[in-house]
Amino acid sequence: MTPVALGHSDLRVSPICLGTMTFGEQVDEAEAFRIMDRALERGVDFFDTAEMYSVPAREATCGATETIIGRWFASRPGARQKVTLASKVAGPSRGMPWVRAGQGMTAADIVASCEGSLKRLQTEVIDLYQIHWPERHVPAFGALYYDPRQERSQTPIHEQLQALARLVEQGKVRHIGLSNETPYGVHEFVRLAEQHGLPRVVSTQNPYCLVNRSYENALDETCHRLGVSLLAYSPLAFGLLTGKFDQHAPAEPGAPQQARIARYESVRRQRWGRPEALAAARRYNRLAREHGLTPVQMALAFCYTQWQVASTIIGVTSVAQLDEDLDAWGMQLAPELRAAIDAIRWEVRDPAV
Asked: What local confidence, expressed as pLDDT, does residue 210 receive?
């Protein structure tokens, strides 16, 4: 895998990123160590985490993922120097008071969260520090429409950038990024950074997969013109695009109960749990098989080869899953298959937005 640049930065990362949100909930520390060892062995040198992980978020496991990664670094001399490490500061509380007190995300919150992450990760610097979701009100995590009546913003973007700039100046963060952002948000972060000489965001981490291509509805142009890279998360739509739920829906008897969407009702209540999302996924999965591919191969090859994507974030619960996802690298989708994929999207649009 040839390293890719993130935005206008000096960061060069693998085009596949290891997502770690399962560590500490579905994946115990020993298996997490094996997964990270294998990822690095196979050329994946880009790891992503967040202060609120494990997922689904619980007070008992908040910060557990970063702690596991920190212990892995401590037990593997030289590993930290080989890995580009990304983490995230949580936005305003979304029913998780143990993550963020109050309704906002202040400059002090950003600094305190970063320092907490550094301690858990047992490192002196985070290579890419991202805002997990916007401080202002935006439609995200299953919401469809922007409603100005819901606005409760307390910390202007300029103030957020100033806090992130201090972390960069102190050597605690190398570069900054966003997540779950909108075209307005990306543009405003870039505009204010350029106007005031503050750090420029290099990436945004947003959902992108066959059942949610909403990134292509204007945000792709924004990021392309501004030089902001996409880190695509949930390429397998929380398991819907693996085929494991083609016979039984996640909550039904017979469905694989170890999957997150099957085990946790909180996950099913979001975008991935919509009946329309499952119905669309089953159509894509059937299309993959008709073309001699597994659903996983087609879904990942789609993300891996899209011009919009700099690096695809894969989350796994075993080394076997990791190898399956990495083995899809290099696969090309025939033009007629791409046309068939687009034809399905024309009918169903983005049911997991």
From this structure: 98
